[in-house]
Amino acid sequence: MQKRISLFVVVILALFVAMTFAEVMGPYADKVYINTRMKEEIGLKDAAEGLTDVFLYGVSGPTLYGMPSSDLEKLEVYAIPSGTWSLNMNNYPGEAPYQAERDGEVLFNPFAIQEVRFAMNFLINRQYIVDEILGGAGFPLYCMATTGQPGTMPYVKVAEEFGFTAEGDEEKAIEMITAAMEEAAALPENQGRLVKGEKFWEFDGKPVEIRILVRVDDPNGRMREGAYVAGQLEKAGIKVEQAMWDRVKAITTAYYSNPADYEWNMYTEGWGAGATRRYWEHIVAQMYAPWYGYMPGGADPENWNHSSPLLDQYTKDAYYGRYLTVDEYWEQALEGLRIGLQESLRIYVCAQEDFFVANKARFESRFAYGLGDGLNAWMFITGNTVDDVLRVTQFSAQGGLFMSAWDPIGSDGFSDVYSTKVSRTLIDASMFESPVSGQQIPQRAVYSDVETNVVREGDELVGKLAVPADAIKYNPATDKWEEVGEGVTSQSKATYDFIFTKWHDGTPMSMNDLLYFDAFVAKWATQNDDNDKEFESAYASKMAEGLDITKGWVVDFENDRITVYFDYNFPADEARVAGFGVPSFHASAAGGTVCGSSWTIYEAIARLITDGSKSGTQYSISSNSDNEIDLLVPAHVADIKAKLEELRDAGHVPVQVKDTMTKTEALAAYNNAIEFIEEMGHAYVGNGAFILSEYDPESNFMELTANRDWAWSADYWMDIFAVPTLNINEVKLPTLVPAGKDFEIQVDLSKQVYPSVTQEPADEGDVEIYIGDLEPLTGQVTIDGDFKIKVPGSMTKDLSGTIEVVVKAELEGAVPVEMRKNVIFW
Questions:
Q1: At residue 490, what are phi and psi to the nearest 5 degrees?
Q2: Could you tell me if 1 and 576 are in contact, meaning their C-beta atoms sit under 8 angstroms apart?
Q3: How many other C-beta atoms can be found within 10 angstroms of the C-beta atom of residue 699?
Q4: Is residue 140 pLDDT above 50, yes or no?
Q5: pLDDT tens across 142-197, in order?
Q6: Angle between helix 511-524 and 599-611 (nearest 10)
């Protein structure tokens, strides 16, 4: 990859300079008011009646279109295939004889048997769930990649290798489960104990019973799904207890309890897409690999954990760029998925078409949103109401705004969908995935001079870029930034120019922020000895792997610039390379979530954990603790404030920045944070588009106030996102084709400029047509809205039976779209 400054970055800089002289900075709205409703129908009705501006919850098709037409006419609808349903299973103990213990009683866990879990793919009729429960507003799903999103086709093809079908095969599934149970019954430990009764399998004279955690707060969706799945399992001879639990109890048990406690067997999960995706290898890791923390045990060393070393290896290699070519990348990512599908601890059921709504009369225009994840932080920033006040309503069956701790450090902080959406408005990313294209684009860090040089020597990938000897890297053993010295090399490098403004408490942003957060990760993900208080195992399981990737920083304090040398290779996308190496303004282990606070808050939390608190509470950054730190809980906030006062009075300068920050700068920052907490009543000191100005957990109310010192205007981001997107309206082709005969495929295409939904015939774009496993046919749109291609019979002469035809269309800078059809060759 050659060294260069991308045209996109030049455009970013030009727009930024022009904007700073002309426009009101910050979001459109001066204020945002957030509340909750405990029923979807009430949230929708409030939006229609103008009692709220946006209902921040994706409802199902039957729920939305069950409204009176007079209400629907008042709503602007954003339809996004952003929701997915899956079944997550507890496979403890993961080995024969498949026995678990609960309350002193030995029980048999059928889901500890891989063959039983795999059979679930055939036992459930995904099409039934889509048609009867979702009212047709969705489609069957076999893996984590949402069909129709960019980059998903190879993953969907892997799922198809296993013979999964939309309708399933109930008879086959029951045969598979029966065979697996009979084999288990023949084990010496189970002989005479595990037997087939008249209706159910029995263990020690009692029915083998599993517990499904069913989301009672989703009565029209997953509650019905749970009942259906329970009925199917009972057909296979396994008795089911349907535990009707709310989201807090279900999620806490399924994700954070020890699987060995055997409190659950299956959870009817629902997922909201975290972003508009262009690449998916990190989602393979998240949804199938034990190391990522979403498998039974949660990668918490205090729990029993599912183990899959080969799957971990493949997904880590794909995640961390340990490949030389694009083909190797796909091999690692797809083999990881293949193992995950075979293990079947998480089985995907369907994608749900989510319908988000806003009151038409309240907005000047449509706002920005994620084409893959629906209404997100960009809705808050670009929601342009007629009076500059934006009212947002969340859905919560229990009434609470959030269900996870606002922990800016731990791996389970900000883990619910609403805290993720809100926090992203309060703090900025260095770079982020565009809601339109899924491509990495700059925010606080503008990249340039990206270069990669890596070769294979034996079995090792070796970087050939020389790291300057005076480049620095933090050493947690000595608590110093040290020069890396001679002879260090890296695979990639990139230079980042940072855009600094102020933290919400008035403290100027600076290079010290970046130095602090990088060193914080190194300290808390590295265990120096058995008594190291600045180490947390769950945090390390997420963050330690990345420590060796960074080889060194060349820091230019005068120009607010850092050149990073790091080991990561992604041949297909320079921006993604830059996005991987970019320094960050937080040190959170919460996956891809952008959350955090100023370094002063981090330092106070660290010292609370290591040195104790004024109240005597022992805090933690683990969700398994009774006192996981939370920036919104008054008692926690009081202890944070007291610790800040203690650090200020001691003249404390964090060791991470002791050579670059003056005592005067540190004292000023502590005072600003203390005054902010006294005024706002919480400890979330961000740097984003909004300031959290009021939070009342009793009335479930939150107020956000526009940050007019923000570096950008809402207009700026609307210009960045305003790219043409394509729609495939129709694909015409014969349903029956004699083998070896020519036929024609016609594609009707339209385009629109995001976020508008006004369509016109497409006059540009690239089209690819995939017929089964054959090489794709390609072409460009040359006639308005019409694309035709002749398929030669010589190409399809060896095909027979039902073959899937996939049509993909793409415009540069926008999310690709696709449509699928079946053709029968005879």
A1: -140, 165
A2: no
A3: 10
A4: yes
A5: 999 987 677 788 898 899 899 999 999 999 999 999 999 999 999 999 999 999 99
A6: 30
CA-CA distance, 41 to 70, in Å (whole number)? Answer: 15
Alpha-carbon distance of 239 to 235, in angstroms, equals: 9
**Pairing label, strands 760-761, 690-696:** unpaired
Element (H, E) at 429: none
Angle at 622 between CA 322 and CA 415, to 5 degrees: 70
Distance CA 708, CA 29 (A): 11
Report the Cα 184 to chain-centroid distance in Å.
37
* Token pair belonging to 389: 């006040």
Residue 29: strand pairing partners: none
The rounded distance, in Å, linking the Cα atoms of 102 and 368 is 49
Please state, in angstroms and rounded to a whole number, the distance separating the CA atoms of residues 563 and 600.
25
Q: Can you tell me the distance from the alpha carbon of 778 to that of 810, in angstroms, rounded to the nearest whole number? A: 11
Task: Please report how the helices 634-649 and 599-611 are oriented relative to each other, as an axis angle in degrees rounded to 10.
Answer: 90
Bridge partners of residue 210, in order along the sequence: 240
| Per-residue DSSP letter, 169 | -
Nearest CA-CA partner of 237 in 200, 194, 182: 200
Nearest C-alpha neighbor of 293 from the set 629, 589, 66, 613: 589
- φ/ψ of 113, rounded to 5, equals -95, 120
Widest pairwise Cα distance in the chain = 85
Q: Which of 26, 137, 23, 38 is nearest to 85 (CA)?
A: 137
The tokens for 342 are: 């075979």
pTM: 0.87
The span from the CA of 9 to the CA of 287, in Å, is 33
